[in-house]
TrEMBL record:
The keyword Hydrolase applies. The keyword Hydrolase applies. The lineage of its organism: Bacteria, Pseudomonadati, Pseudomonadota, Alphaproteobacteria, Sphingomonadales. It comes from Sphingopyxis panaciterrulae. This is Beta-lactamase superfamily II metal-dependent hydrolase. Residues 1-21 are annotated as: Disordered.
Length: 465
């Protein structure tokens, strides 16, 4: 838990002819959007060979907006909301036809600062009057399509509580069953979840039987799963590595033939890039120590979204840096990166901690935009800032946005951080225009219950295959 350049080579799968036809149908529309985008964006590519590139100050990068309300989602838009509660990860996606996805909804223990001193938590935002999961549910209420009554798909990237919720002394019992409310369970109390996908379903046995662990947080989550399935309120599935047919547009799939979601990796299994084939890279014996303990992070889900030319990847806490006291298998990013290919937007793995977002990952993905979902004072690691700003790893412009950077972190890392991040506070929304050719970044005020726009960056032009 704690610690562009040239045309991009996409994933190696040969696309079905129907998808190719769909892409061709959108080329003419996307071309005009790209032309408009280039006119508005301008030519901003400048090479800088320094590992720590001092870029222009934030004020020159985005357009401050006088606390305007975000225009509502409409058909054809892809909205990717990275929600800041100050207490763990949460993201909410509205797909082009209105299909909805929740990707993680975490919470943190009250005694975190005591356990991990001198680390400090960020502020609970917008305030501590509600639990983080309740604030996530309220955020969804504000930005969901008007016709939405439930969340179509929810993912738990891995079983750390900052991604699904921790039990606190005052956690209430659900009105629907014998589990207590925190994190994703708080969200589900307000927004019923139709299908919940995680790395453990159906038997929760990798790398060892999870139901036998003395972890009340995980057992509470499993009570939520079990009771939801028994009552018919919830369907659950295991994350099907390699598949692009597990998460589908549920309302108007034929209208958006260039949209897809590919399951890239989980539990050490990785898509090969061919069809729905996968390969195993980890076995239980090597990752469980003599005390029966193991690290959840390398087992995280990695998910890739494609919409026309636009590509986005998120990977929970997947790891990529093997320290001297860690085995080679801990580096999952280097195995996964080649099959991901170049992307337009990525989240920084493991909150920007120093054991992730490695050089191989960045060389392969070459993102235009990076989003860091943070909640404690050691995020990001200084080494990670060096990597994400290095023009030695990939040439081209990059724009970096964090949900919250603490003042102590800014002082510790210095101008290499503050001069290269375009925003260091707020909800981060990626809004992709119909067809996927152009996208924008909006920073929403996380201290306000109304969540007005603080600043706007873009438009950015999605890079073609």
């Amino acid at each position: 838990m704690i610690n562009g350049g040239s045309d991009k080579p996409k994933s190696r799968e040969v696309k079905p002819s129907s998808r190719l036809k769909g892409r061709q149908m959108f080329k003419a529309r996307a071309a005009s959007r790209r032309l408009l985008g280039w006119i508005l964006v301008g030519v901003v590519m400048g090479a800088n060979s320094s590992a720590f590139a001092f870029e222009p100050a934030v004020e020159g990068r985005g357009s401050p907006v006088a606390r305007e309300k975000l225009p509502a989602w409409h058909d054809g838009l892809l909205d990717i909301h990275h929600i800041n509660t100050g207490r763990g990860n949460a993201a909410f996606f509205v797909l082009p036809d209105g299909t909805s996805i929740l990707f993680d909804a975490g919470d943190i223990e009250d005694d975190f600062e005591e356990k991990y001193a001198p680390l400090k938590l960020g502020p609970a935002v917008p305030d501590s009057s509600l639990r983080p999961g309740q604030w996530i549910a309220d955020y969804i209420r504000q930005f969901a399509p008007k016709r939405m009554t439930a969340i179509d798909y929810a993912f738990v990237s891995h079983f750390h509580t900052d991604h699904y919720g921790t039990l606190l002394p005052g956690s209430p019992v659900s009105a629907h069953g014998p589990w207590k409310l925190t994190g994703i369970m708080d969200v589900a109390e307000v927004w019923p979840i139709k299908i919940l996908i995680d790395r453990g379903n159906p038997d929760y046995s990798f790398p060892r039987p999870l139901r036998e662990q003395q972890d009340e947080n995980l057992l509470n989550y499993l009570r939520f799963i079990d009771a939801g399935v028994r009552s018919g309120r919830l369907k659950t599935q295991g994350f099907a590595v390699g598949h692009d047919d597990q998460v589908l547009l549920r309302h108007d799939r034929k209208r958006y033939p260039t949209f897809s979601i590919r399951n890239i990796a989980a539990n050490g299994e990785i898509w090969t890039g061919i069809g729905m084939e996968k390969r195993a890279t980890l076995n239980a014996d090597e990752i469980v120590n003599q005390n029966g303990k193991f690290n959840e992070n390398p087992l995280s889900l990695v998910l890739k979204i494609n919409y026309g030319d636009f590509d986005y990847v998120t990977g929970g806490d997947i790891t990529g840096v093997s320290e001297p006291d860690q085995p080679a298998w801990f580096n999952m990013e280097s195995k996964i990166a080649p099959v991901v290919g170049e992307v337009d937007v990525m989240t920084m793995n493991h909150h920007g901690n120093r054991d992730a977002t490695n050089a191989d990952w960045l060389r392969n993905l070459k993102p235009q935009v990076l989003v860091e979902q943070t909640w404690t004072s050691d995020q990001p690691g200084g080494e990670v800032v060096a990597r994400v700003t290095s023009k030695h790893l990939w040439q081209g412009q990059r724009h970096i946005f964090a949900t919250h950077i603490q003042d102590a972190t800014k002082v510790a890392i210095g101008p290499w951080l503050t001069r290269n991040y375009q925003s260091m506070e707020g909800h981060v929304l990626i809004r992709v225009q119909p067809g996927g050719g152009v996208f924008d970044v909006y920073i929403l005020d996380d201290h306000s219950r109304e969540r007005p726009i603080k600043s706007h960056f873009g438009p950015f032009v999605s890079r073609p295959e």
